Amino acid sequence: MKQIKDLLLNNKKAYIQTTEIQSACAKIITEIIRFQISPSKIQHKNSGLIVSVPPIVKTEIYLHKVEILHEIQQKGMTITTIN
């Protein structure tokens, strides 16, 4: 029988992985487009990133999309799309 602490431990690992992915992706995007993006503005869902930023910044991200995805994949993360 599983205990509650085991279930909470699994959830904590998933949260840590999500925050690590958000932080790493925010750092990569910031370095490439030279505009500060907070990790809280990035969501990771189904091997894709959802970036909640103003349209002008999102356009800059789309212009550098291939380079950003390449850098993210070099870090060992499986991200395939940016929205």
| Poorly predicted regions | none
Radius of gyration: 15 Å
Query: Counting H and I runs of at least 4 residues, what is the number of helices?
Result: 3
End-to-end C-alpha gap: 41 Å
Average predicted local confidence, pLDDT:
86
Helix content: 55-70%
Oligomer: single chain
Tell me the β content: 5-15%
Task: Encode the helix/strand succession as letters.
Answer: HEEHHE
Global geometry: elongated
- Write out the strand line-up for the largest beta sheet, numbering strands in chain order: 1-2-3
Largest sheet, in brief, is: 3 strands, mixed
Q: What is the domain total for the residues?
A: 1
Structural category:
alpha+beta
Number of strands: 3
Structure description:
There is one protein chain. Helix content is 59%, strand content 12%. By secondary structure, it is of the alpha+beta class. The chain has one domain. Strands 1-2-3 form a three-stranded mixed beta sheet. A hairpin with a 2-residue loop joins strand 1 and strand 2 (48-51). Helix 1 (4-33) crosses helix 3. The protein is elongated, with a radius of gyration of 15 Å. The termini are far apart.
Topology of this structure?
Blueprint lengths: L3 H30 L8 E4 L2 E4 L3 H9 L1 H10 L6 E2 L1
Parallel strand pairs: 2-3
Antiparallel strand pairs: 1-2
Helix pairs in contact: 1-3
